[in-house]
Design brief:
With about 150 residues, this protein is of the alpha+beta class. Helix content is about 20%, strand content about 40%. It contains three helices and six strands; from the N terminus they run αβββααβββ. The protein has a five-stranded mixed β-barrel with strand order 1-2-3-5-4. Strand 1 and strand 2 form a beta hairpin. The model has no long low-confidence stretch (mean pLDDT about 90).
Amino acid sequence: MMLDRRKPASEITPAYEDGGIFKNELVQLMVELVPLTAKNSRNDLIVKGFVDGNSAIEVVFPGRRKVQAKPVVALLQAKLTHARKVAARTGARVDVDTLRYPARIEGSWRPRFKRDDNGWETRQFQLFAARWILKDLNGKAITFGEMKVRE
C-alpha cells in the first residue's frame, strides 16, 4: 500500500496548491472543448479538447478551479442536450467530437504516462488550466479561473 503524503486540505494555501500544479511556464492557447468529461484521482475535472483543428488534448481544471469550471460544463452539457434532441428528430447519430465550444485557456503543460494494451508506456500532455475565457450567448468574453498565485 502506498503512503498518502498529501497535506490535509486545511493546510493547503492557494500559493502552495499553484506551486504544485503549475510547475512549467504558463501558455495561452485556443482550445475547442467538447462535452466529454472525466475526473482524475484528485477529483479534478478533465475535459476533452482540440487544438489546431484535430489534435486531441485533455484540459484539466485542477484544485479550487474545478468549482469555477461549472459554467464550462453547463455550456457543454447544453450543447450536447440540444444535439441529442436534434438527433432524435432526424434519426442522426451524435458525434461528440463535433460539438465544440471555443475557449482561450491560460495554463501549463504537464506530462501524463499511460500504459497501452501492449504494456508500453506512452507520454501524453495535459493542459492544466489556470484561467480561461469563454464567450456568452451574446458574444461577450467572460474570464474564469484565476492567475497563478506565487509565494
